[in-house]
């Protein structure tokens, strides 16, 4: 078994969770589709999971389906608290093996934070030990409020390798709007606003939950920019990349985003397609909400990205160095060297219970 190095990135809304894992096995396994004459020198796997809507059982099934967890889970219940505890634990476990879990906030986290509890069930409130306990745990003095402030952001820019040549991917819960006023510097501007709004919302006294109390809106002192972050055109709620039907418009936006923030793909959830992961504009836009929870009854799915760098074989036909035997393709994996040529391969797949489906394949030669 390869030793996995894991980075797990998770974009959550009490209702929605996207979640990624990078994994670099050592030694690299042979690639079934690409010849790797000198062996892959670098390999990472990333998995993203869309909106889970508090469904702990399906969350665990998807994690297992994507090979992210083993069968030793013994979870009870089906409420949000368990999902957050699961992510908390997996984050620790991933970092213990050199990996990483990155969590992102969704609209439902921020709704909970500002006291908009319209989607919170009585059972959930009971699991937390009542309204006051739930509010306390969500506040910046409670474990979950602290966890959100420390470990969750609105947006993530994910490089596919640690090298400067790496293509990058952008993740957020909703759609990223190219005309969003605080798009750049990406993702810092968005994440700063998210953190300041969340801090405001989680600083006691917390808003009285609506219902039964009237909706109190964003916290006192919220700035215009923070309000824009949370409104319908912001990255938590906007659906444009998913629900505007005209491809010319969406691909225009995708191109604009690529130019403004330099990413290869923009990936989000929030707008479900109950049958499949949706990709548009040559997979420069990917929407991974498949309505995974039992409440929605969509398909279980995960997005997988496998990124490899394989040294370009040197032209050794006339080599006559008595001290260096010519390579025969079974040598140890290459060590990465700056200035050398590599074949970069990015494979994007949708994982379903019925198997994998290729979404995109990008292969190019790069100089590291
Ligand atoms: C952030 O996540 C790590 C790993 O789960 C955890 O150890 C740490 O306590 C979290 N921070 C807060 C403030 O909860
Ligand atoms: C889609 O991506 C492939 C692979 O990079 C590229 O060859 C092709 O030109 C792209 N098509 C469009 C319409 O951008
Ligand atoms: C060639 O293959 C053999 C095993 O098949 C291996 O022991 C050897 O190190 C390889 N490399 C070279 C340069 O001979």
From TrEMBL:
Keywords: Signal. Transmembrane segments: none annotated. The keyword Protein transport does not apply. GO terms for molecular function: hydrolase activity. Residues 45-272 form the Calcineurin-like phosphoesterase domain. Residues 1-19 form the signal peptide. This is Purtative protein. It comes from Vanrija pseudolonga. The lineage of its organism: Eukaryota, Fungi, Dikarya, Basidiomycota, Agaricomycotina.
